[in-house]
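Sequence in, structure out. Go.
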Amino acid sequence: MACSEDEKETVLILSTLSLHFVADEETKTFDIQSNVSWSISGIPEWCILDVKEGEGNKRIEIKAIANPNDTQREVILVVKAGNKSEQLLIQQNGKVFTLNISESLLTFSADEEELSFDIQTNDSWSITGLQEWFSLSLSEGKGNETIVVKAQANTSEVEREGILVIKSGSESEQIVIKQIGKVYSLTLSESVLDFLPEGEIRGFAVESDGSWTVSSNAAWCIVDDGNGMGNETISISVLENQKETTRSAEVTVTCGSLLKKVIINQMAGIISSVPYIFNLNDNRLRAGDQLVKRQVEYKDPGQSGANVTWDFSNLVSINDEYTVDYKAPVLIEGTHYIMGDDRLEAKDVAPNSLIIAEEHNTMYYFQLKDNKMITLGHENPVTLLKYTTRLFSDAYTTSYGDKQQAPYYGKGLYSGKSLFTVEGKIEMNADAYGTLILPSGRVLKNVLRIKTVRSSTQTNLSINPDYTTYNRSEFTTYKWYAKGYRYPIFETIVNIDTDTNAKSILSFYFAPEKHTYRRINK
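Output:
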């Protein structure tokens, strides 16, 4: 028997029971055949249907949005019509991620530097593993990109390293970021510095491309600053050596792992327990020496006798660069020397016994003979003088209380035409010893003072005796000598015209640190 219209059988047929989608966005269709109304359920967010319910036959369009994950996904849609239902399996492939890095290692120099690498990917990406000593132009993005890595200067000598991790989806790559350690340079201008016993300040240059420290291993050797950078000059202050032995210290300069040293040597202290004895070995004039005399306002020489104190701590300078140079004469034709108006045969002269002193445009000629320094004469642009009865200037040895005297006589020419003679007597007396206080505050003990008085009568000759003139004077010099010093420490000169009583006075300070002679014989 036929069924009534209300009791007709429900029809529900799907054109397919499954749809498979690629990972990218894709649209597909399926057909519903039905004779009643129907609906679709179980629809996930990643599936978009153009129709979710209807009646009768219908073609349904399904759009699967792109799968952001690398795993396949699926869902079962349920189509229901009346008392019937059908299932439609929806499957979508997982995304296939691609990630390529152009470099696996970036090596930086120790200086600040920029390097780059390329990211090639089909998705978004991020970078982790950033460290303080380098930065990135980008740490996240999407698609292909060039990443600039900037490394700060590495001031350490130790190599440093970091690892960047680049992630895109399920893919990841690593790139090693490496920076070499700083290679420092360090050069010192001196390896050894020699200091005088009284103490002084000297320095040496540091050349470096980094920061450095400097230190001394001795309290008596003081560096001016313990730190520096680049090229600088280090000042070393050495205190007075108050012992009769030499001493040494080390000044160390360190730059990174580099270490260099300057040896500091200081001569033995000059300690004297008895009045100094003026002697040939330590006090004779010596070729090659230069004295730097400082002309100062006149200082009264003070009293004579034992244990005198001379305070020369406060001196007023007049001329700081008054020099005296000592040199040997030139041997002419291998046979003789010319010393002013004297010709001296080499065979008659002891080795190293002739000395020329140049002072204020005047050449003074000396010869060491019979333990005395003899003045042969002098010359300058207007005067030429030769002593025929030689004038002695120093006598070796001379101790406190010793006295010597001798006459002298000389002939000269003034302006190339005017004849004159000079004669008189010289008296040398080691008249005092005691303590000398220097401008630096340093105290020298048992200093010997030698007083020299030279009386002089100069006769200016003329063809007509009525025009002959005379000049009479007394020239007094005080010189202070101390152990360890070849030349005087202080000198005072008083020149009196005995005819008019006119007086000229001079004083000179021979600063020990300015001298090249010292105790060491060349």
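Check: Residues 1-5, 516-522 have pLDDT under 50 and may be disordered. The chain has four domains: 9-92, 99-179, 186-266, 280-514.
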